[in-house]
Design a protein that fits this description.
Keywords (chain B): Membrane, Signal, Transmembrane, Transmembrane helix
Pfam family, one (chain B): Cytochrome_cB
Protein name (chain B): Octaheme c-type cytochrome, tetrathionate reductase family
Largest sheet of chain A: 2 strands, antiparallel
Number of strands of chain A: 2
Number of domains of chain A: 1
Order of helices and strands of chain A: EHHHHHHHEH
Helix content of chain B: 10-25%
Signal peptide (chain B): 1-23
GO molecular function, one term (chain B): oxidoreductase activity
Number of strands of chain B: 19
Largest interface: A-B, 45 and 46 residues
CATH topology of chain A: Fumarate Reductase Cytochrome B subunit
Oligomer: heterodimer
């Protein structure tokens, strides 16, 4: 095993991540305004910004889904029970005792099991909930005529949308906080900017990358 | 006759007339491209001695006009409501202003589009020459009717003290000049009656005032010379002298839009010109178009009524009328309009008033149908009586949320039979008219007799509301309501049933639940962080 500086986040993935950050924060900010939590924006402009950001995010997600499946990166996001207890125990206990993070980032698996499970939940439940309800909300006039009680429906849809949004806020808070655990905020954020992180490579992986994808490896120090 | 704007209007009209010897002072009608020059017709070159003589000359060529007019609501003041079956029209209803036509005929019928209707128990006079062509078609601007003459114009010699239907001092009308000037109706033809409903400028409707003779663009984007320069009948289309735009059975929604090529000529709706998707083809426009399933155009596009400097009466308490000082009627003028004019807030003849300018409407679902508390309906005097009830609700397929002026006040009712009453208020020579004798008992008794109704002899006063749909004074698009006018905690639709309005309820259960979730997450993260600090470790380090 050798520690090498490897490109773990290709350019599209980094773009995906940061574009998502901007769009989700825009959506949260405008959405809170629309719900009367703050009044920093007028209602009309807030609706427009919210709608445009949502459509942009949907487009981004379509591209990302395509990218995940064509590159095989989707495998990174499949949750595994194995190791999850250890990570959970670390966050609940070990971290206070100065233990090391039980998960070692490896080339084909850049998320720890708890992280992967969280992202899996986000991608399969929370994000679909928000965009399905969002699209239904936006297209009210198209379907309102074909349901018996459109006001009840739109009320339920709006509340589901709002609930999903608050779950996303909670995720963002925990996500940002956990960046401070372990190697620290800076070293956790840097790979998502530069793309490179220092991970353990098996000799086979090292040899493969050196031969076939030299661009992903920084020269050994 | 007590009329609050009489003096100033007299002044305005006197100025207009003095500067117009021989000149045309009625605002020009756009697109006057008639093939007939009425100054060249021999039959009109006579010295007419009365209104009916002019009408006789008109119908010698316009052979069907009298018959058409006599079938119109402008002439009959009678309307059989097709849905409620109620008998409405000015002949029949009681309103929250001067009450009723019955008992006050020559005063009220001064605005009748005919001549000599002096008894509401009879249909209007049926001879062809009883139709008043000039009141709508005079374009000389100097035709008018006297305020108390059952529709006749003031002619030479005018009795001193005579006033016109707008409250101005009367002048002698030159009927020949009027007859030779005729054309399609201008804003003044309609406005001289409709702007002064309820006894003065903008008293009744709130969205129909003398400002509309020549409104700035900000007051009425359609009627302004800086805008489309429309006359009333540009929208209020006619067919055989029948107008669209009934307030009893209105088009609250219009799904037909502009219709097939060639402008629709059957309705006065916004949609008949603007279509059903009137907003720009962009995301904002699409969202605004999405609102047309619940909102009338007027709701956003008439943000306030009584704009342009003329107030409307919003409260009229008849119960305080009749107070005298030293045996004499008196008045108070405690409302100052934005133009500096003082308006009556008390008259011995009429009671107490309130006035408002730039009034925010109230909003209600409206399917276009209005049900009146007619004289035969039993009321509950413990409740506010709705003189007219606007009908409609969400989901009935045709109602929209409309803006309304709500006229509030107190008016007389029969306290034994629980009916609204007809009152005889005008009658300078009778010993029963309220405005002359200040005796409610006599005035109601006479009014009920005039209307042919049963009356117990006992009366009291009851709180009333009356609703006036707001549809004029459409503002330029940039002055339409903003989204936040309704989409906010104390927005304009507060209390309206059957609406889901984002932005009005930030403290719903899910909103609170969500905020608790966020707070709990923050607390958990903070606790975790604090524990890490106290345990002296930044977190798992790798040696």
């Amino acid at each position: 095993m050798a520690k090498r500086c490897v490109k773990v986040y290709p350019r599209f993935e980094r773009f995906w991540h940061w574009a998502q950050v901007v769009l989700i924060l825009t959506l949260l900010f405008t959405g809170m305004g629309l719900n009367g939590v703050h009044s920093a924006l007028h209602f009309g402009p807030a609706v427009m910004l919210h709608t445009v950001a949502a459509l942009a995010l949907l487009a981004l997600w379509i591209f990302a889904t395509f990218w995940l499946f064509t590159t095989g990166t989707w495998r990174q996001f499949i949750p595994k029970i194995e190791g999850m207890i250890a990570v959970a125990r670390f966050y609940a206990y070990g971290v206070f005792r100065g233990e090391e993070h039980p998960y070692k980032k490896i080339f084909w698996r850049k998320h720890n099991p708890l992280q992967a499970a969280t992202y899996f939940g986000l991608k399969w439940f929370v994000f679909p909930a928000i965009w399905v309800t969002g699209i239904a909300y936006l297209t009210y006039n198209i379907w309102a005529g074909s349901v018996a009680a459109p006001v009840a429906w739109i009320t339920a849809i709006a509340n589901a949308h709002l609930l999903a949004a608050y779950v996303i806020v909670a995720f963002v808070i925990v996500h940002v906080y956990l960046l401070t655990v372990g190697h620290g905020f800076r070293s956790h954020v840097t790979p998502m900017i530069t793309g490179y992180d220092t991970i353990d490579l098996t000799p086979e992986q090292e040899a493969y990358l050196e031969t076939n994808e030299p661009g992903r490896l920084k020269p050994a120090e | 006759m007590p009329m609050s704007r009489m003096t100033i209007l007299g002044g305005v009209l006197a100025v207009a007339l003095s500067g117009a010897a021989g000149a045309q002072q009625a605002p020009a009608i756009p697109g006057s491209d008639s093939t007939a020059d009425h100054t060249k017709f021999e039959i009109l070159k006579q010295d007419f001695k009365s209104g009916p003589e002019v009408t006789a000359a008109c119908i010698s060529c316009h052979t069907e006009a009298d018959d058409q007019m006599m079938h119109s609501i402008h002439f009959n003041w009678d309307f059989d409501h097709p849905e409620t079956g109620q008998k409405l029209g000015k002949r029949n209803v009681i309103n929250a202003f001067c009450g009723s036509v019955a008992g006050n005929e020559p005063r009220c019928t001064s605005c009748h589009a005919g001549y000599g209707w002096e008894d509401m128990n009879q249909p209007p006079p049926q001879q062809s020459t009883a139709v008043d062509c000039l009141v709508c078609h005079d374009r000389s601007g100097q035709y008018t009717k006297t305020a108390t003459g059952a529709g006749h114009p003031p002619l030479d010699p005018v009795k001193p003290g005579t006033t016109t239907i707008t409250g101005a001092p009367a002048w002698a009308v030159d009927l020949s000049k009027a007859a030779q000037s005729v054309g399609m109706p201008g804003r003044d033809n309609c406005g001289n009656c409709h702007f002064y409903g309820g006894g003065g400028d903008n008293v009744k409707h709130g969205d129909l005032s003398s400002v509309l003779y020549d409104p700035p663009r900000a007051v009425d984007v359609h009627m302004s010379a800086e805008g489309e320069n429309f006359t009333c009948s540009t929208c209020h289309v006619t067919d055989k002298h029948q107008w669209d735009g009934s307030r009893y059975a209105a088009h609250a929604s219009d799904m037909k839009g502009t219709g097939k090529p060639g402008q629709r000529r059957d309705v006065a709706t916004c949609q008949s010109c603007h279509g059903n998707t009137p907003h720009e083809a962009n995301i904002m426009g699409a969202k605004l178009n999405d609102h047309t399933d619940v909102l009338a155009c007027q709701t956003c596009h008439i943000p306030e009524f009584a704009r342009g400097g003329v107030a409307t009466k919003t409260w009229w308490d008849w119960s305080t009328a009749g107070k005298l000082k030293d045996g004499q009627p008196y008045h108070e003028e405690e409302f100052t309009q934005s133009d500096g004019q003082h308006l009556h807030t008390y008259l011995s003849t009429k009671g107490n008033f309130r006035w408002e300018e730039n009034v925010k409407p109230i909003y209600a679902w409206f399917d276009g149908q209005v049900e009146y508390t007619t004289g035969d309906k039993v009321i509950d005097p413990a409740q506010v009586v709705e003189v007219n009830k606007v009908k409609g609700e969400r989901g009935d397929g045709r109602s929209r949320i409309w803006p309304f002026k709500r006229m509030e006040g107190r008016q007389a009712y029969d306290s034994q039979l629980n009916h609204l009453v007809f009152t005889h208020v005008w009658g300078p020579t009778t010993d029963t008219a309220f405005w002359t004798n200040f005796d409610w008992g006599k005035a109601i008794d006479a009014g009920m007799k005039a209307a042919g109704r049963e009356y117990s002899g006992q009366f009291d006063f009851v709180d009333t509301h009356m609703y006036w749909p707001i549809t004029h004074m459409v503002a330029p698009a940039e002055q339409a309501l903003k989204c936040g006018s309704c989409h906010s905690e104390d927005g304009r639709m507060v209390g309206l049933a059957g609406v889901f309005l984002p932005g009005t309820d930030s403290n719903g259960i899910v909103g609170i639940l969500g905020r608790l979730l966020v707070l709990a997450t923050l607390a958990g993260v903070l606790l975790h962080g604090v524990l890490r600090i106290f345990s002296g470790r930044k977190g798992g380090h790798h040696g």
